[in-house]
Amino acid sequence: MLPDPHLPMRYPAKRIRAILVLAALVLWAAPAKAQVTSQITWRMTTEYPQNNISGIGLTTFADRVAARTNGFVTVTNAFDNELKISSGEMPRATLDGRIAGGDAFAGALSGLDPVLGLSTLPFLVQSADVARAANSRARPLYEKALAARGLKLLYLTIWPATGLWSDRSLAGADDLPKLNLRAYDANSNEVMRAAGANAQFLPMDAALAGLKEHRLNAFLTSGDGGAGRKLWDFLPYFTAINYAMPVSIAFVRNEAFAALSEPLQREVLAAAAETEQSQFALLANRRSENYARMRDNGVRIAEPAPPSLVAALRAAATGAIAAWETQAGSDAVAIVEWARQQ
Fold first, then answer.
1. pTM above 0.85?
2. What DSSP letter does each residue of 165-194 carry, written as one string?
3. pLDDT (tens digit, 9 = 90+) per residue, 121-150?
4. Could you tell me what percentage of the chain is helix, strand and coil, using 3-state DSSP and rounding each to the nearest 5?
5. Domain enclosing residue 261, as ranges
6. Residues 245, 162: contact at Cβ < 8 Å?
7. Residue 210 lies in a domain
8. Is there a single domain that holds both residue 91 and residue 44?
9. Between 307-328 and 330-340, two packed helices, what is the crossing angle to 10 degrees?
10. Per-residue three-class SS string for 190-256
């Protein structure tokens, strides 16, 4: 017997709706189950301690990634060069799969591309605001340089101004030849040598070994870098020459980032942006906090630095900057010219 076409088809409609709801639940549950069994962990590193500004950045990033991805992506960090991978070695270690990425001091990456050494150019910026604006302009260049080598930029950390730690008080330019000094990149090595110091470009671990073995008696680094390493045990003087406000760059392997779904990529980039903002906010009081800690540990801080010392360093810097400009390209040089006018 055929159904009456004028009667409502309630029951078949209910069955259809039930089938559709069930199908939707199955489709929803499938990726959820896959997420539970396919969580992603990134191993990242820095050669600096956890309480250093770079270490704080990695800790913040790990927290923000876990929160934004509901724990689906986790970041485990190694601090204080626990993995024996210096900043300059991080790109190769990342591409080799030993780590997913890390936070590297930018000056040590300038061998990959000169533009990555922009933030360590001497006496280019003298304030946090100018440093932030200059690095904002340079960011596309940093991203391009890293992407060409299979790396994805996550966030930047601006460091407090670089000064000179030494085992003696520095009265002026005549004291520079007395320094066996650790420089932190090729540019600063050239500048310090031109000014008369016996400088060596060394990664932090090698520099600390040289300090403990009394082969070095001075460090070019910030109060942040020195306080984190307790340089006051060997170098109880700090001269605030305001040499530069360099950055460190956090990155991961392109393949590791590309393996994430698009929604997860958006959350990771949002976590990176939040970390960068947090790092810049941290910078506002970082110098005064470092100085207080340094003074508590017996460091004598010379601020302002002796004029003849700064004048000698500025004069020595001109050649290094000119050489860098011939290698870095017009876009990078334009940023330097902008910064000089601020």
1. yes
2. EESS---SGGGGGG-EEEESSHHHHHHHHH
3. 999 999 999 999 999 999 999 999 999 999
4. 55, 15, 30
5. 39-159+245-290
6. yes
7. yes
8. yes
9. 150
10. HHHHHCCCEEEECCHHHHHHHHHCCCCCEEEEEHHHHHHCCHHHCCCEEECCCCCCCEEEEEEEHHH
